[in-house]
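During the second year of the project, the team shifted from modelling isolated chains to modelling whole assemblies. The rationale, set out in the original proposal, was that interfaces cannot be judged from single-chain predictions alone. As a representative example for this report, we include one of the complexes processed in the last quarter. Its constituent sequences, exactly as entered into the pipeline, are reproduced here:
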Amino acid sequence: MQVNGTALKAAPVAGMQLVDTLGADIELVAVTKQFGATMAVDAIDVRIPAGTYCCLLGPSGCGKTTTLRMIAGHEQATSGDILIGKQNVTGLPPTQRGTAMMFQSYALFPHLSCVDNVAFSLRMRGISKRERRETAREFLRLVHMDEYGERMPSQLSGGQQQRVALARALVTRPSVLLLDEPLSALDPFLRVRMREELKRLQAELGISFVHVTHSQEEAMALADLVVVMNEGRIEQAAAAREVFERPTTTFVASFMGDHNVFRGAVTGIESGYATVSTDDRVSFAMPAAGRNVGDVAAVAIRSDRIALSRADARLNAVGEHDDGVSGAVSGVAGTVASIEYLGLWVKVRIEIDGGNDLTVALPDRQFFDAPMDVGEQVSAAWDVDDLHVLET
Amino acid sequence: MKVVAGKLANGAAYLQVAPLALVFAIFFVLPIGLVVVVSFFDYQTYDILIPDFTFQNYIDVFTQSVTYQTYWITVRFCLTVWAITFVLGFTIAYYLTFHVRTLTMQIVLFLLCTIPFWTSIVIRMISWIPLLGRNGVVNSALINLGIVPEPLEWLLYSEFAVIIGYVHLYTLFMIVPIFNSMMRIDKSLLEAAEDAGASGWQTVWLVVLPLCKPGIAIGSIFVIAMVMGDFVTVNVLGGGQIASVGKAIATELSYLQFPPAAANAMVLLGVVVLLIMLLMRFADVRREL
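Output from the structure prediction step:
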């Protein structure tokens, strides 16, 4: 790939104009998009530094695709500004933005061969047939598709079509590559392989990738910057690890998965700890940290930071850890509702008396040393310091 | 067992195609066969069908200069009408597909296109007469506006009138298959073209048009086959001055000259089949069906 990487930079393409040098910052300032009465994107601000792999993550209808399409220029922002590099591109057509888009359906021209698909944008620039086909072949080589140049898109598998679509997007030498759910149509094996390849290409080309996905796993595996969106707003924009370990809102914590989220009102404060009761009358303890009785509080606890035991003892109140670990423990009692074996982990879902759910991830060995059955009474306990306090 | 099952399945399949095959045999193969047979018959003034096997009727068709004149007129109609209906059909289908946003509106506008078909073909043709006639609406308007000093004679009973009639009748047959092809085009292809820097015209020329080829071919087959075989429109709007191939055959039939009419019809059939084969080479129509 080294060879291809250099070939890519050396290949002369006449009449080619990049908005900026390779890699450009993207900045969205109060970007808003309204479709009739519905607010698709609501005054979002975000800055994506040059050379970043950025994932826009969120459930369907959260505005992530609209945001991407506004960056691409396929959708006009109702208000706000989009800057790429030093240029305000808000009103510019797609070609003058230095962006390239890879569509979810790949959008390869079905009547053109792979080479002609990749060469299409060069043809629009008036580059001679021989030269543009040569450049197209180079880009097909970059995605390991040079042997399929003369095939028609319908003769290729989904994964191959995607590679061609990638080559076609990159041939314009964009400073930003926009990918709309690029992996959603692939089977799980291929998805993981393509994921690696996208990451490798991004690192090699040094340009920014903005990748829309609804899979938190995909976002965590790929992104330098994860932008979690919900209902047209940005909930959190940070590095993957930060988003997972320190989610700011209840939405982020539950959307990222592997977190149990509790929300309730402080009912009592005792020696630095607040007792919080949820609407379902589940009680737990959290650091008081200036909270008063009646305040609303929300916390997240990772499902792998919870210990399960068959002991009947309910741990509603704050107490000392039995096994000598310092710090307070809190916990709840409940019934095992389902058990999922996931290989490395066993996921146990517990119905807490009162109705709330709690998911606990146990390392497989720990679970099978003392297996449990559905319907068994258990108590779950965690270190209060492992609670992550969320914005309410 | 397997063989028996296969035979049974075969039998069932034959039974299933039988009704359609029967309809085709009785209403298509049989009449054409009869026309072929009659085209080799002899005829006299008072004896209209004399069983025979003579090539005289075909020799007459190919040696009379009137044949070439009628074909020349018919082909001219064909090309003109094809060009006009293609441009109209393509633009209307393009508008319906890419500019009308909701499916409901698309259906409403599409039904609007079919309004001419709510009445019979003869009424549709005759209704042009008060519009285009010597003292018709168009001429009166032009005179009242002072654009022309006296009525335009070429508006009615002319090639112009016949072409208007054809366009009126057959544009829908172009719109429907092209619209059908266009609706299958993934809208993101247009965005991909835009992304690649294609102008609107380039997108139409390099993406939309090639992908509509099958629809264009089907529409062209409809229009060409219908114009080549028509005699009603020529009769009503051509005013007896214009002789297309269909009109010539109809005239021969009205004089009860069945064998030459049959020979003429067979030649016309051959020409139309050739044209359709040419069009089939231009696009893979099967993909559309």
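Residues 96 and 109 of chain B are 8 Å apart (CA to CA). The first helix of chain B runs from residue 2 to 39.
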